[in-house]
Write a structure and sequence with these properties.
binds fe (ii) ion, single chain, mainly alpha, Hypothetical protein af1432
């Protein structure tokens, strides 16, 4: 992206807050996203959720889903306790972004977008736990946010971005490849700018920035690598963008996996087939969870008009 386009985009992103009708809970939530997890207060989270009926309902559905043992959770407070504060905080953010984007600006079907984001969040966290990454909840958040740039592109470049999605679906190729050709930038870059604008940590910003290509940053950290691999796994297992991509995944040969091995040498001896098998086992539960939040859905062609 050239410098002129970058400063133009930056100015538009800086204005995003004032052009969208953010739900009341968005700004307090963003403040919470910046807090270390031990400073988040349960009562504050319950209060925020209770402001919005549809968000409270989705929170209860998730707490009652198979991933959390189908508890009979009937209050927001017990749902928050069942899910855990960190998870609720991230999920709330996703749900309230649904309300930030005006209906006519959604290029992806919102449920396809959030199925992919939530699926990626859950898998990033699983992988983080498996490799003993010290902050699995941060991994969850990075997975949830990684494609935020799609929302920026949908709001700022609605028609051109719709064309990108149509072409990508027609040719069965990753959308960032088409974005580069049509827009001259990708959702990775606009997502990075939005995360910077919100003051999120550099580690999160970097993970969003290089989630399709960790070699973009010379010092891409484990978080970026986990998000990259988890995004790939989601896309080959029908938790992608709502269209089929022609792709294969070779985890062991992926640059992100090699970077992870350098950070966690014990991974070198990990049985990768077994590792992906475990993730596949979790995938079924993850799909059930995503369905319980957004409703069951078959893979559908993207909206093209
Ligand atoms: Fe992406
Ligand atoms: Fe993605």
């Amino acid at each position: 992206m050239n410098a002129k386009l970058q400063s133009q985009l930056q100015a538009q992103i800086d204005k995003l807050d004032s052009v969208s009708t953010a739900p009341a809970i968005l700004m307090p939530l963003l403040d919470m996203l910046r807090l270390p997890s031990d400073r988040i207060k349960l009562e504050k989270v319950v209060e925020l959720i209770s402001y919005d009926g549809s968000i409270a309902g989705q929170c209860l559905r998730l707490a009652n889903s198979p991933l959390f043992g189908r508890r009979q959770t009937e209050t927001v407070r017990s749902a928050v306790m069942a899910l855990g504060l960190e998870r609720v905080r991230s999920m709330l953010f996703g749900l309230c972004m649904n309300e930030v984007i005006p209906r006519d600006k959604w290029v992806f079907a919102p449920d396809a977008f959030w199925r992919h984001s939530l699926g990626c969040a859950l898998i990033t966290q699983r992988m983080a736990e498996r490799i003993e990454y010290p902050e699995p909840e941060k991994a969850y958040l990075a997975g949830l946010l990684h494609d935020l740039g799609f929302l920026v592109n949908s709001v700022l470049y609605t028609e051109k971005f719709r064309e990108c999605l149509r072409l990508a679906a027609e040719e069965h190729i990753p959308i960032h490849v088409i974005e580069e050709q049509v827009l001259g930038f990708t959702h990775c870059e606009t997502g990075q700018m939005l995360c910077e604008h919100w003051g999120l940590s550099k580690e999160l910003v970097d993970a969003v920035h290089c989630h399709h290509d960790v070699s973009l940053l010379p010092n891409a950290g484990p978080l970026a690598c986990l998000v990259h691999l988890s995004d790939l796994l989601c896309r080959v297992r029908y938790l992608g963008y709502g269209y089929d991509e022609i792709m294969g995944v070779d985890l062991g040969g992926d640059a992100a996996w090699q970077t992870l091995i350098r950070a966690y040498p014990a991974l070198e001896n990990m049985d990768l087939v077994r590792f992906t098998f475990d993730i596949d086992g979790a995938m079924e539960q993850i799909v059930a969870t995503v369905d319980s939040v957004f409703g069951a859905r078959t893979i559908a062609a993207p909206a093209t008009s």
